[in-house]
Every structure is written in structure tokens, then in C-alpha cells.
TrEMBL record:
Residues 76-141 form the GHMP kinase N-terminal domain. Gene3D superfamilies: 3.30.230.10. This is Beta-ribofuranosylaminobenzene 5'-phosphate synthase family protein. It holds the Pfam family GHMP_kinases_N. The keyword Iron does not apply. It comes from Paraburkholderia kururiensis. InterPro entries: GHMP_kinase_N_dom, RFAP_synthase, Ribosomal_Su5_D2-typ_SF, Ribsml_uS5_D2-typ_fold_subgr. The keyword Repeat does not apply. Keywords: Kinase, Transferase.
Length: 344
């Protein structure tokens, strides 16, 4: 059971900034070599989730972009109250990525709400405990592990059934500060999720053993050493190889190596002109091109925009890697601050 600590005062406001992540691929989706999944991922700056939470007389959920997002928060609160005791909160979503675009927004939002709840309740809980309670991290642990630490992460998959624990962290490498990530997203599409995702995974043929072995070698002997030594060429070639391999495997259920042909057009145009690690995060539709410097990122951005000229549904942005996890701050609520101003 989580340890109980001092409950924050009623006027406290907890702010949680949770980072987005790129899911760079599974090592062995169908356990052809004995252990299912295993994930490589990168935590990034920008595109993250920020919420504020405070004690309230009546439960409030504000700032959500969609009704489904509001419902997800309400479900999280019900599970948290059942586990840690009754607590009435006002939740304000300051920002969050569009759902089902491959940036891990569902896990970020759930962990942000859970973290704020236990802080205000005067309880302690690990991110893994919150993820298990809130139904996150059942296949990939990258979102949960990234919430804690940031960086370039490798997990070992969730292990043998019952898979009710977050996949263990196998490696964490700091992402080199000079390297940049070009994100390309298609606002006209969503990635597979929910029941559709489960049906898609069930419909796939077993992942070939030789490909699982190949991906393990690429990750352990190209991608991770490349990051550790800030040696961009093997890192970029390894990421592209991994993404092409896993993308071809998922192509029958997502419509191609990339979910969005227009995103594919943009990132392949970048790779045709310069060394870049390209691919799609999770089920897309967001694609990426990792490049070796800020200057290369600006050139890649120009190339991607030129390749998608006349496509208003395509958005491109440059971000950095993030070598730290979520931040949590407790302060006086906005209402109390305003009351102090009014009384002055």
C-alpha cells in the first residue's frame, strides 16, 4: 500500500508538466524469440501535457479538447478515489497533444492526473503503480518510463501473462543536445486505437524470428551506441532500418509503412537530401526525421514543407530531445492569489 504523507493544504494547486514521447518501434511484437514487444522510445520537448489540480467543493474538469478526453479524466478520478480515498478536485487541462497521433497523450494525461491526485491526497505512489491502476503501459513502458526520466529509453516488454506491470527499463541514454527532431503530422487522420488497434494486432501474422533478432542487433549495436557516443550516422541508419522493418510488418493494418502517405512523402524527401533517422511514432499519423544539428533541422523543415506544399492538413515542427521527466510543482491556487491581490 502507498505510504501516507502530509496532505497539501486546501489552497494548494498542483501543476504537472508531462512530456510527449516518440515510440520508435517494438523489438519482437509477437514474442517470436520468447518475450513480447520490447520498445525503443525517445522523450521530446514540446507537444507535452500540462494540467493544474486543486481541491474543490464540486468536481470540475475544464480545458479538455474533446468529450472523450473529459471522460478519460473522469474515469481516472474514479479509479484514484477508489484506491486512495475520496477527494474532490478541480482539474484544468492547460495543454495536451491531439489524441491518437503517436505522442503518448493518453498516458501523459493519466499519469499527470494521477500524480496531482496523490500529491493533493497526501499519498505516495510510483508512476508504475499509477499506470497499473489507470490501465496504461500494458504493452510499451516508454510513456511511463519517460514520465519518470526522459531520454532515449529501451524497455524489455511486459513479460509473461498476467501483464499487469510496466515493462522494466533496460537502457536509458541521454539524447545528444545537438540533435534535433522534425515532427510531421497529418491533422486529417488518427492512428489506430482502442478496439480497432486490438483487432489489428490480432490480425497480424507472427513476427519472423530473424527480423526480431535483426532488430535486437540494430538497437543494441547501432542505435544505443550511436546515442552514447553522439555518433549520428549509425544512430540514424539504425532508426531508419528499425522503422522500415516494423513499418512493413504493420503495413497490412495501417495502410502502408506510414499511416499517412503525405507524412511519408515529407520525411522521405528529407532523407533523400541528408542523413536522417526517419519513421513514424507508434500508429501515427505523426512521422519524424531525426537530424544531427539545429541547422540540419531547419533545412529539413524547409524540405518537408516544400514536399507538402498545398497540403494544409500537414503540420511540421522542430523539437529537441528531453533528458528529464515530468515536473511537478505545488503552489497557492489562482483563486487564493487573486484573493490576496483583491485584499491588498
Amino acid at each position: 500500500m502507498p505510504l501516507h504523507i502530509r496532505r497539501l493544504p486546501p489552497q494548494a494547486c498542483v501543476t504537472v508538466d508531462a512530456p510527449a514521447r516518440l515510440h520508435l518501434g517494438f523489438l519482437d511484437p509477437s514474442a517470436s524469440l520468447g518475450r513480447a514487444f520490447g520498445s525503443l522510445g525517445l522523450v521530446i520537448e514540446g507537444e507535452g501535457t500540462q494540467i493544474e489540480a486543486r481541491h474543490a467543493e464540486h468536481e470540475q474538469i475544464e480545458g479538455t479538447a474533446t468529450q472523450s478526453e473529459r471522460e478519460r479524466i473522469a474515469i481516472c478520478l474514479e479509479r484514484l478515489k477508489a484506491a486512495y480515498g475520496p477527494l474532490t478536485l478541480a482539474i484544468h487541462v492547460r495543454r495536451t497533444p491531439r489524441a491518437h497521433t503517436g505522442l503518448g497523450s493518453g498516458t501523459q494525461l493519466a499519469l499527470a492526473v494521477g500524480t496531482a491526485f496523490v500529491r493533493l491526497a497526501g499519498c505516495e505512489a510510483t508512476s508504475a503503480e499509477l499506470a497499473a491502476l489507470l490501465g496504461r503501459g500494458m504493452r510499451s513502458g516508454i510513456g511511463v518510463l519517460g514520465f519518470d526520466s526522459g531520454g532515449l529509453l529501451l524497455d524489455a516488454g511486459p513479460g509473461e501473462p498476467p501483464r499487469n506491470a510496466v515493462a522494466p527499463l533496460i537502457s536509458r541514454q541521454p539524447f545528444p543536445e545537438r540533435w534535433r527532431v522534425l515532427l510531421v503530422t497529418d491533422h486529417s487522420r488518427e492512428g489506430l486505437h482502442g478496439a480497432e488497434e486490438r483487432r489489428g494486432l490480432a490480425a497480424l501474422a507472427p513476427f519472423p524470428r530473424e527480423l526480431a533478432a535483426h532488430l535486437c542487433h540494430v538497437v543494441l549495436m547501432q542505435i544505443l551506441p550511436g546515442a552514447a557516443e553522439a555518433n549520428f550516422a549509425p544512430f540514424a541508419r539504425g532508426v531508419t532500418d528499425m522503422q522500415q522493418t516494423i513499418g512493413e510488418y504493420f503495413a497490412p493494418v495501417q495502410g502502408g509503412v506510414f499511416t499517412s502517405p503525405d507524412v511519408e512523402r515529407a520525411v522521405r524527401a528529407v532523407a533523400a537530401e541528408r542523413l536522417a533517422g526517419i519513421g513514424q511514432t507508434s500508429w501515427g499519423p505523426t512521422g519524424f526525421a531525426i537530424v544531427g544539428s539545429a541547422r540540419e533541422a531547419e533545412l529539413a523543415l524547409a524540405t518537408a514543407r516544400d514536399a507538402t506544399r498545398g497540403m494544409p492538413h500537414i503540420e511540421c515542427a522542430i523539437v529537441s530531445g528531453r533528458n528529464r521527466g515530468a515536473t511537478v510543482r505545488a503552489a497557492e491556487s489562482r483563486q487564493l492569489r487573486q484573493a490576496r491581490v483583491d485584499a491588498a
